[in-house]
Amino acid sequence: MLNARVGARTQDNVRIIAVLLVLVAMVFLAIRVVIIYHFFLSYRANQAEAFSDFNLYYYAFNVVLHSPHDPSLLYDNNNLLVFLKAMGADPSGFGILYCYPPQFALVFSPFGLMSPLAAKLAWVAMSLGLCIIGVILTAKMAYRGSERRIIALLIAIVLLSFPVLHDGYLGQSNELLFFLLATSFYLIERKHPYAAGSFLALAVVFKVTPLAIVGLLLLRREWRAVVSTIVWAIALSLFTATQLGFRVIWHYITVDVSRANAQILTMGGLPGNSSVRGTLQTLSENLGMPASESVLHATSTGFALIVCMLACYLVFRRSQDRRMDYALACITMLLASPVLEPIHMVVALLPLVIVIGTALEQLEARLSAIAPRAELLLAAIAVLLLFFLERSATYAASAFIIYVLCVARYFPRSTILPRDSRARLGNFNSHTP
């Protein structure tokens, strides 16, 4: 009888929470419609500046199509500036460089066959469509219950967040990365490791940083997924080499990556860079004691080593739910980076959805070192921070909240309760009718 009443109350609580949050999501949907309409009006006035970051991709696509025998132009900033001027786009400002691997430019080079505006619209439509698919797969993986409103809530959390809107506004590629990672995790959960490896390989050769996910799979002994990822990544790299030459790949690895990183690191601190490095830089400047480059580099590198080593220990020694391993790997990948731009928080939504989905799946269970209600409250704060444009340290705070929620899941209540408390709890259960 008691168990039946507790189960019914849990279901009622889930329904109430889902309804309230869906209502909140509808309010934010109305706000997003207004913002998108404003973007549409501004784009009509200046089509060359519409989805401005895509201009850099469009340049790379055209180099692959029209100058395949001189692929070094991919990372030639002078040639890029000339191309942007010819498009009618503003070549001034920070971050005017193409820094993606040559595989990315080759795979998506057909977009260069379209006019600039048509290519931009097709890219944004593709990114949004893939992001929606990725969100649905993530929601179904994170929540295995029967309440469909929870699935709708998890989808709304991602699609109504400001990083997703901002990523689409710029014509960026983080929605694509979200899809590739989400699909990889979903396929592994569905026992399709070889197919999962193909998607993860694309993520690795497009963005490099998802190599952290390959490390996770090694720790989990997902050998088939790892082998598939390596084979697909090598195959795509060899195909790129046959089309553009081995020299462009080697030059990218040995020269262009470090040059691009050096320029990106000059972007400053908060809110444009929400990493530990960016946060420390801003705090030190506000205190009137600007940190030197050596201090920033040492702090950033040391923090990255700590979070990576902690993630390895947790996954290898304390893993209980594979879904949380995916969440921890994603947020660790972001926090370990010396640069965490607002649009990168699109990927942070993946672990956030997993945390919320698994919590609502077992609402009355103590899955974490943090109490269930406190855990949902912290998750709600992280969601709320991501529903608005970045301000000061808001995205940094959201990222660290997500990280704490993920780490706390590896220390559930059963592992931290004192022995006498567990004994009292056992006695209570044994006398419960």
Written overview of the protein:
There is one protein chain. With 433 residues, the protein is an all-alpha fold. Helices cover 73% and strands 0% of the residues. The radius of gyration is 23 Å and the shape is globular.
Q: Give me the secondary-structure category.
A: mainly alpha
Helix content: over 70%
Say what oligomer this is: single chain
Shape: globular
Mean model confidence by pLDDT: 84
Total E-strand runs: 0
Q: How do the helices and strands line up, and which of them pair or pack?
A:
Elements: H1 2-45, H2 54-66, H3 77-87, H4 102-107, H5 116-142, H6 148-159, H7 162-170, H8 174-189, H9 193-207, H10 211-219, H11 223-244, H12 246-264, H13 276-286, H14 293-317, H15 322-335, H16 345-361, H17 372-386, H18 394-408, H19 413-416, H20 419-431
Helix pairs in contact: 1-6, 5-6, 5-8, 5-16, 6-16, 8-9, 9-11, 11-12, 13-14, 14-15, 15-16, 15-18, 16-17, 16-18, 17-18
List descriptors.
20 helices, disordered C terminus, 0% strand, mainly alpha, 433 residues, single chain
